[in-house]
Design goal:
Length: about 650
């Protein structure tokens, strides 16, 4: 077989396996086998890039980022649905239908809580995908949709033009996994699967969308120049044959059956892989749909039954306080077990002291809880009639329940936070931060390794990193001698990090990259900074009263002092490498282009100006350096044309620091 045909048959095979895996949830090939074939295809494509086709599974990882989304006019509007909330409203809908047509059948579908998309195929090839937008005009998110594995890129025996509509969603499993990963990396959590799906689909960089592992379920043919269908059910069966994931679509003839199915779906709704916010009843016969037509917003032949969030009463056995990875104390009620929204719940969040005081939640109370939009159940209200005698108002502790350090209220908010620099509850997050790129930049010390080190008990504070031995690290799962050596070497190297990085690595409240740079430049040694009084700190440009307070409090904390002592003994650099402030870039002109990852353009500009340099908006012969971030445009081209040196962001940062 020649190479081109071989590539084609590999593509076909991988797409077929992909369909079984991602759409049918019935994998046949072993992951290993799939990966091997994929690798084989990748190698052939590397040798013959001219034969890469858009439907190749290698194209699912996300192509080039775009600057903005183009508008797309939908050939058939993506309409909304009329809501019904109770049996009377459903009966009225059914009556209107039957008065006109007599006998009727309905399909009952889950109302998937994601976001609506239209997918267009020409001669079976996926050419465009758009969001719903206002229903008439949406946004072109084709590149992001290409990364959605359950959307076929190529259809066999499809009509010349086909536009289908479906719901893009993030499955509960993926949502949970992503949030677990985010917790570990101390990134803000995704609030709920719907927002997560919407946010992912509107990422300008498809590579990010690819990581979100979205799914898509189809519920309608918007437009087709193939043979028409008699019923919705037939149309969906056909789409299933074309390899789409399609919505479940049982058909019922009487109102009682319809109501029963809606109730059944409602009861089972937490067993589905996607979030369901209702059930949709649609007239099954397409000709009847055409007869009923639509209002300006809704079809007259369908309604959406909305399910309210489930609420339950639960008895408060205790109020527990958790210390999060950022040190925030979060109170929650511990309740008797209650079944709620598909899971057994034994606690619900109380957010903070203000919330507790406002609702006056007490141990012994009976509270109403629900899961609405968010994953963690919330306390809705207290049933005061059920309050037993002898309860007392609740107040959060003044010391961290984990490490005993004093608790302080955030100067700019309502959260109470543990002030311990070595608090075990915050250890993983602190270590990940300590090792991160803007801090000590320890290569290979990501969240997974940090977790392994902490779980093995090898590290109690970031200072312990410098005591690690190769043999200890090599014992960790999936580590091995070589990686262990590399990690220890990277840790060793980090001892020479700049003072600014070290200050940033402490993770002091209010002190990020920028403030750390300012402080390093101003005080030149860590000891000078430690000795500086709060009043003096506030005189430093860009250091406000709150930051000054956070700094002095932190340095006075015994745990922080212990950490600093450990780092000192380890030989970590405590001094600034920077030259005298204000002179380094004297007489130089910089042009910034593209998106910087580690700082905003403004931060880059400020740091150039602070060092005596100038920033200009356009490249000329007088330009000293062009700093090019991601997706740099015409300025980069101009620099190359004029032979002006171009710096990457990392090179620029190095220049700035040394
Ligand atoms: P609403 O957003 O409340 O107006 O409800 C209409 C939306 O429900 C549509 O835009 C679709 O995105 C969504 N939807 C989810 N599942 C279905 C379904 N099975 N049939 C029709 N629409 C659905």
């Amino acid at each position: 077989m020649d190479v081109k045909s071989k590539m084609e048959s590999l593509r076909e095979l991988l797409n077929e396996w992909g369909h079984l895996y991602y759409v049918m949830d019935a994998p046949t090939a072993a992951d290993y086998e799939y990966d091997q074939k994929l690798r084989e295809l990748e190698q052939m494509e590397a040798e013959h890039p001219e034969w890469i086709t858009p439907d190749s599974p290698t194209q699912r990882v996300g192509g080039k980022a775009v600057a903005s989304f183009q508008p797309v006019q939908h050939p058939v509007p993506l309409q909304s649905l009329q809501d019904v909330f109770d049996p009377a409203e459903l009966t009225a809908f059914d009556r209107r239908i039957r008065e006109t047509v007599g006998a009727v059948e309905y399909v009952i579908e889950p109302k998937v809580d994601g976001l609506s998309v239209a997918l267009e195929y020409l001669d079976g090839v996926f050419v465009r995908g758009a969001t719903r937008g206002d229903g008439s005009v949406g946004e072109d998110v084709t590149e992001n949709l290409r990364t959605v594995r359950s959307i076929p890129m190529k259809l066999h025996n499809a009509p010349h033009r086909l536009v289908v509509r479906g719901e893009c969603y993030m499955s509960r499993n993926v949502f949970q996994q992503l949030n677990e990963e985010r917790t570990l990396k101390d990134e803000p959590l995704l609030a709920n699967p719907r927002n997560a799906a919407a946010g992912s689909l509107r990422q300008l960089d498809p590579k990010i969308a690819a990581q979100r592992r979205l799914d898509c379920i189809i519920f309608n043919i918007q437009l087709s120049d193939g043979d028409p269908f008699g019923t919705d059910a037939e149309q969906l069966d056909y789409l299933e044959q074309l390899c789409f994931r399609v919505i479940p679509h049982p058909v019922f003839g009487t109102l009682d059956q319809v109501q029963e199915e809606i109730n059944r779906l409602g009861e089972n709704r937490y067993q589905y892989p996607y979030e369901m916010d209702g059930a949709v009843a649609k007239v099954n016969r397409i000709a009847l749909r055409e007869q009923f037509g639509s209002t300006a917003k809704f079809p007259r032949w369908a309604v959406a039954w909305k399910y309210p969030p489930e609420q339950k009463l639960a008895k408060v056995l205790d109020i527990a306080v958790q210390v999060g990875r950022t040190g925030v104390l979060t109170p929650k009620v511990v309740t008797e077990p209650v079944r709620l929204a598909g899971t057994t719940v034994t606690n619900a969040t109380l957010h903070n002291q203000d919330f507790i005081s406002e609702k006056d939640v007490r141990i012994g109370d009976t509270v109403l809880i629900q899961k609405a939009g968010e994953i963690i159940p919330q306390v809705v209200s207290v049933d005061h009639a059920k309050r037993p005698d002898g309860t007392v108002p609740y107040r959060l502790p003044e010391h961290c329940p984990v490490c005993g350090a004093p608790v302080a209220r955030d100067p700019d908010g309502v959260a109470l936070r543990c002030t311990g620099a070595e608090c075990p509850a915050q250890l993983m997050r602190n270590l990940v931060h300590f090792a991160s790129r803007d801090c000590m930049d320890i290569e290979g010390l990501g969240p997974a390794v940090v977790r392994a080190l902490v779980e093995k008990g090898l590290i109690q504070t970031p200072g312990d990193l410098y005591d690690l031995k190769v043999a200890e690290v090599a014992q960790l799962e999936r580590m091995g001698e070589k990686s262990a050596q590399n990690l220890i070497a990277a840790i060793e190297k980090s001892k020479g990090s700049s003072l600014a990085r070290l200050i940033n690595a402490f993770g002091i409240r209010q002190v990020g990259t920028k403030a750390a740079q300012v402080l390093a430049k101003q005080f030149r040694t860590l000891d000078a900074l430690i000795e500086t009084k709060e009043e003096t700190l506030t005189e430093v440009p860009d250091i406000g009263a709150i930051t000054a307070r956070c700094l002095t409090e932190w340095f006075q904390n015994p745990q922080a002092q212990h950490l600093i002592q450990k780092l000192r003994e380890a030989g970590v650099n405590f001094e600034s490498y920077q030259q005298e402030a204000g002179s380094k870039f004297a007489g130089m002109t910089f042009v910034l282009t593209g998106t910087l990852e580690q700082m905003t353009r403004n931060q880059a500009k400020t740091s150039i100006e602070e060092n005596g340099g100038k920033v200009s908006g356009s490249v000329s012969k007088k330009t000293t350096y062009v700093v090019a971030g991601e997706a740099a445009g015409s300025k980069l081209a101009k620099a190359e044309e004029l032979g002006i040196p171009v710096l990457s962001e990392d090179e620029f940062l190095t220049l700035l620091e040394f």
